[in-house]
């Protein structure tokens, strides 16, 4: 038992566990916040170039536990957390890409549909215009034929009137010659007498 006591005493004389040197370096590497700038109150406050003190919220200091295994556990937890966040970010990007691709596909389909409908309606319009042009040409031809027919009828009537006029002139000349030969006066003189 005495030997065990001496062993325990010998161990107790050993120095206590020192924090790892990297923790000590981290504490030394954390800079202290800079002192606030001194403002000279002699300057006018309305001066646009005047230095105005700004209260900066001091950054919270990250405290690292001094235990070696605890540091490792914390580091592993951070790595695990970052891994989860990177998976989440990758999933989010994937979902956004899927949504974009889906929207682009729908827009492309919609554009194709719109263009086909427009082309169909434009073809229908051209067909109607061609039909109207044909009908217009047919109607114009009919009108021209009617105009020609009317002109022909008018010429025939003019010829008939001219023929009647010539007959009446011949008749009048014959009657005048007969009256001259007989010396009789025609019963009908000019209508104004």
UniProtKB/TrEMBL annotation:
Residues making up the signal peptide according to the UniProt record: none
Keywords: Coiled coil
Record-linked InterPro entries: Remorin_C (IPR005516), Remorin_N (IPR005518)
Remorin N-terminal domain location: 21-79
Record region (Disordered): 1-69
Pfam families, A to Z: Remorin_C, Remorin_N
Family named by the database record: Belongs to the remorin family.
Protein's name according to its UniProt entry: Remorin
């Amino acid at each position: 038992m005495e030997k065990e006591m001496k062993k325990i005493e010998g161990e107790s004389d050993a120095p206590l566990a020192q924090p790892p040197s990297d923790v000590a370096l981290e504490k030394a590497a954390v800079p202290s916040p800079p002192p606030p700038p001194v403002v000279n109150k002699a300057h006018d406050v309305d001066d646009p170039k005047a230095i105005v003190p700004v209260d900066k919220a001091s950054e919270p200091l990250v405290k690292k536990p001094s235990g070696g295994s605890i540091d490792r556990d914390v580091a592993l937890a951070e790595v695990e957390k970052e891994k989860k966040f990177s998976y989440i970010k990758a999933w989010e990007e994937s979902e956004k890409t899927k949504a974009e691709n889906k929207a682009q596909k729908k827009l492309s389909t919609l554009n194709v549909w719109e263009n086909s409908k427009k082309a169909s309606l434009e073809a229908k319009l051209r067909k109607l215009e061609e039909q109207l042009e044909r009908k217009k040409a047919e109607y114009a031809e009919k009108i021209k034929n009617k105009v020609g027919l009317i002109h022909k009828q008018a010429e025939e009537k003019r010829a008939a009137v001219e023929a009647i006029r010539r007959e009446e002139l011949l008749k009048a000349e014959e009657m005048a010659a007969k009256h001259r030969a007989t010396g009789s006066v025609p019963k009908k003189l000019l209508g104004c007498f």
